[in-house]
Structures are given as C-alpha cells and as structure tokens.
Specification:
The protein is α+β, with helices and mostly antiparallel strands. The chain has a domain at about 30-75: 2-Layer Sandwich (Potassium Channel Kv1.1, Chain A), CATH 3.30.710.10. It contains three helices and three strands; from the N terminus they run H-E-E-H-H-E. The protein has a three-stranded mixed beta sheet. The chain is elongated. It starts with 10 loop residues before the first helix and ends with a strand. The model has no long low-confidence stretch (mean pLDDT about 85). GO terms for molecular function: DNA-binding transcription factor activity, RNA polymerase II-specific; RNA polymerase II cis-regulatory region sequence-specific DNA binding. This is BTB domain-containing protein. Pfam families: BTB. InterPro entries: BTB/POZ_dom, SKP1/BTB/POZ_sf, ZnFinger_BTB_dom_contain.
Length: about 80
C-alpha cells in the first residue's frame, strides 16, 4: 500500500475516535488505573500525551517496559 503524506483536516479527530474505540474494546490497552476500587483500562501514550503527571509517572516507572502497569489513584 502507498503511504500518504500530510493529513486531512479531520485526521486528528479520526485518530482520537479510533483510540477511544480501542480502549472501550480493551484492545491495545497497556495500563489499568484503579480509582476507588474500580479498574479503568487505558493507553499509556494517550495519558502521557495529555498529562505531565502521567508522563512523569510513566518515566519514573520505566515507560519503555513492555509490561502492563497497574496504577492506583486516590479518589476525590
């Protein structure tokens, strides 16, 4: 197949929708967040791209590791 250069105006939104669908289907998730005893599966790369807290946390815990992580977060 041929690789396209550049992106269409809606490309970013399409990527985000696909990532969310993958998360909902528990596909390619590489972290579990425990919040008030409830597990929420997620993608480390998405969390780190949107939060300095998670970026720092994953860097400290060896984000390059292929092992799945479980992080417990305190509720409000």
């Amino acid at each position: 197949s041929e690789c396209q250069r550049g992106t269409s105006p809606g490309h970013g939104l399409t990527v985000l929708k696909q990532l969310n669908e993958q998360r909902k289907a528990n596909r390619f998730c590489d972290i579990a967040l425990l919040i008030e005893g409830e597990e929420h599966r997620a993608h480390k790369s998405v969390l780190a791209a949107n939060s300095k807290y998670f970026q720092d946390l994953f860097t400290e815990k060896g984000a390059t590791s292929n092992q799945e992580a479980v992080v417990e977060l305190a509720g409000k």
